[in-house]
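Quick log. Single chain, no ligands specified.
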Amino acid sequence: MQEQTKRSRMWFLGLALFIVGSLFAACGSDDEDSTAADDSSAEDSEAADSDEAETDDAGGDDAAEAEDASGDDGGDAGDGEYEVFALLPQGNDQPYGTTYLPPMEAKADELGINLTITNSQYDADKQASECETAVAASPDLIILWPAVGDTVRPCLEAANDAGIPVTVTNSDVNPEDQDLTAAYSGPDTYGQGVASAELMCEFAGGDDIGIIMVNGLTGNSTAIDREAGFEETVAEQCPNVEILARQPGNWNKDESQIAASEMITAVGAENIQGVYAADDTMVAGVIDALKARDIDPSTLIVTSIGNTFLGNPLVVSGELDGTVFQSSSWDGEHAITVAHEVLTGSPSDRIVEFMPSVKVTEENADAPEVAPEW
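-> predicted structure:
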């Protein structure tokens, strides 16, 4: 009986060992399969990463080739695309701006320049705000037509600090601010005043005459330069011409008529033999003021600047003795060509391109080369 019991225990022990061994074998097989699966998954992942890397490299090469091609095409069209802000004080709200903008925009398209144009309407604070916006946008260049010349230095300093070149159009900045700009294109505003004064001196001969002067917007650099050019030339070439009174007409016909009327009252019509106005719009207002006082403008010596659609007929009629031609289309186009020269050439010296100042009298008022544009 004891022997039988012993054999039974041995049988159960063997069975237990067999079961445990089977379990270990099964676990070992699962671990190997899991490890193999993990290894296989890792290899697949590495292969996928490798394929993705090759795809990215190929895409990078394609992008680089496209960029090179784009660069070549851009060079042919105008040395690439440039972002430029044009901060102007007028636009389609003024006759000059209406004929200034189309050639400006056409030349910009031709040279691959994307323009963002603002119009401050001669409001210095508004232009300062527009300049802040422009500098924050980090364009390749800023074109500035100063609304008020002695207020633009903070704008120029901000652009300079940001590494943005500034070119000036139509009305140059004050001499002390010019080192903050890369170029100027537009009328020789001082020279225009000189030319109008030379006309006055020529028509006056050696006679002693008294004149009234109507200037542009106070603080505007064009107004300042034209006034200085006229006054200094008269003092030098014909001191027999005396400036009896002066007032700003603010580039406005109605305001100029009022200003002229006040000066006629102040100095006496009998003492006035001549008039200088800083542009044709204002001289038209002065002529209206003279007529309102029953003064025939053709009996006075009257000179101006512009040869505009308003001024040219006055030259033909003899009411305006002489003016100085200013081309708005030249002005707008050259604002872009000079900007492009700065963008593509990085000149070390400040570029200055003056518009020719052509005197217009009754003799050449109908010549095609001085045909009015605005």
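The mean pLDDT is 84.
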